[in-house]
C-alpha cells in the first residue's frame, strides 16, 4: 500500500520538476534570491510543524514581492516540490500506520478540490482574493495562538475512523483543496478536525502532507500553464525549500517553536490587516481590473 502511494507521488514530483524546468527554459527565468531564502526558512519550519502558507503570504505582502491576486497561485506552486519532499518523508515514516481508506480518500479528495479551485481563483476579482487571503491569515493567527496557549485538541490514539467520520473527513478535504488555491493552508484545519475525531495527531501528518503534495503538483501545474504565477519566485522557493525540508526532517527533527510562533502571529496579523484593507478599498474596482497577468520571467 505504501509503495502504491509513493510511486505516483514520485512520478508527480518528477512531472512538476519537468514543468518548472520547461518554464525556466522557455522564459529564461532566474530564481529570485530573496525567494530562495524565503523558501528555505518557511519550509524548514513547516516540516517542524509551524506551517508555511501564512508566513509566506505575510512576507509576500510585507515585501510586495507578488501582486495580491497572484499570491495564492505563486505560493502554491513555489511550495510544490518542498511539500512533496515532506509528503514522501512522512508517508515513508508513518504512512503504513494510517487506515488506507482514510489516507487515500483524503488525498484524492483534496487533489480533486485543488484541481477544481485552480481556475476559480484565476477568474475571481482581486478584492475577493484579498478578502479570502486576509481572513485565512487571521484564522492562521488564531490557530498559532491556540497552539501556543495549549488550547489545540490533543487528539487520541486512533489510526482509523468510523465510516461516518471517514466520509466527513474526505468531504472536508475536498473543500480544503479548493481553499488551497486561495492561500488557505490545509495543515491546521486537517489537524484540528482529525484530532477532534480521535486520531493520533502524529498520524495526521501523512494525510496532511500527502494530500497537499498531490494538490500542489496538480493545481500548481495548472497555475503554471495558465501563466498565473511569478516564475522567478516559484523557482527560488523550490531551490531553497527542498534542502531545508531534508535538514529539518533528518538533522534537526525538533526544536522549541513557541517564541517563533508569537513572532509569526504578529507578522501574520499585520499582513492580514493590510490585505483586508486592500480588499475594502478595491471592492468597487471594475470586474475586469486585475485580469490575467502574464507569467513573470
Fold and architecture overview:
- The structure is a single chain.
- Residues 287-297 have low confidence and may be disordered.
- The protein is 75% helix and 0% strand.
- Helix 6 (100-123) packs parallel to helix 10 (201-225).
- With 297 residues, it is mostly helical.
- The chain has one domain.
- It contains twelve helices and no strands.
- It has helices spanning 2-27, 33-47, 53-63, 71-78, 80-94, 100-123, 126-148, 163-180, 187-196, 201-225, 231-252, 258-282.
- 52% of the residues are buried.
Structurally, the number of domains stands at: 1
What is the mean predicted local confidence, pLDDT? 84
* Alpha-beta classification: mainly alpha
Shape from CA axes? globular
Q: Got a strand count?
A: 0
End-to-end Cα distance, whole Å, is 41 Å
What's the helix count?
12
Question: What order do the helices and strands follow?
Answer: HHHHHHHHHHHH
Main sheet characteristics: none
Please give the share of residues in helix: over 70%
Uncertain residue segments: 287-297
> Whole-number radius of gyration?
18 Å
Classify the beta-strand content into a percent band: under 5%
Amino acid at each position: 500500500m505504501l509503495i502504491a502511494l509513493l510511486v505516483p507521488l514520485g512520478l508527480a514530483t518528477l512531472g512538476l520538476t519537468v514543468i518548472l524546468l520547461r518554464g525556466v527554459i522557455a522564459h529564461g527565468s532566474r530564481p529570485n534570491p530573496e525567494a530562495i531564502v524565503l523558501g528555505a526558512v518557511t519550509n524548514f519550519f513547516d516540516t517542524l510543524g509551524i506551517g508555511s502558507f501564512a508566513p509566506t503570504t505575510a512576507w509576500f505582502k510585507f515585501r510586495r514581492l507578488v501582486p495580491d491576486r497572484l499570491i495564492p497561485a505563486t505560493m502554491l506552486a513555489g511550495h510544490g516540490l518542498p511539500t512533496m519532499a515532506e509528503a514522501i518523508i512522512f508517508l515513508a515514516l508513518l504512512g503504513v500506520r494510517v487506515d488506507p481508506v482514510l489516507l487515500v480518500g483524503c488525498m484524492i479528495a483534496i487533489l480533486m478540490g485543488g484541481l477544481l479551485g485552480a481556475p476559480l481563483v484565476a477568474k475571481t476579482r482581486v478584492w475577493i482574493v484579498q478578502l479570502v487571503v486576509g481572513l485565512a491569515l487571521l484564522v492562521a493567527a488564531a490557530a498559532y495562538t491556540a497552539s501556543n496557549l495549549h488550547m489545540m485538541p490533543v487528539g487520541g490514539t486512533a489510526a482509523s475512523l468510523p465510516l461516518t467520520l471517514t466520509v466527513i473527513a474526505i468531504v472536508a478535504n475536498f473543500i480544503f483543496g479548493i481553499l488551497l488555491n486561495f492561500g488557505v493552508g490545509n495543515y491546521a484545519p486537517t489537524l484540528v478536525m482529525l484530532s477532534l475525531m480521535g486520531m493520533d495527531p502524529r498520524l495526521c501528518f501523512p494525510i496532511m502532507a500527502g494530500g497537499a503534495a498531490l494538490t500542489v503538483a496538480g493545481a500548481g501545474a495548472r497555475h503554471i500553464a495558465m501563466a498565473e504565477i511569478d516564475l522567478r519566485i516559484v523557482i527560488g522557493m523550490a531551490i531553497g525549500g527542498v534542502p531545508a525540508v531534508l535538514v529539518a526532517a533528518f538533522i534537526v527533527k525538533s526544536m522549541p517553536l513557541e517564541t517563533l510562533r508569537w513572532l509569526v502571529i504578529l507578522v501574520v496579523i499585520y499582513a492580514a490587516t493590510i490585505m483586508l484593507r486592500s480588499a475594502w478599498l478595491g471592492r468597487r474596482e471594475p470586474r475586469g481590473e486585475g485580469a490575467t497577468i502574464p507569467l513573470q520571467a
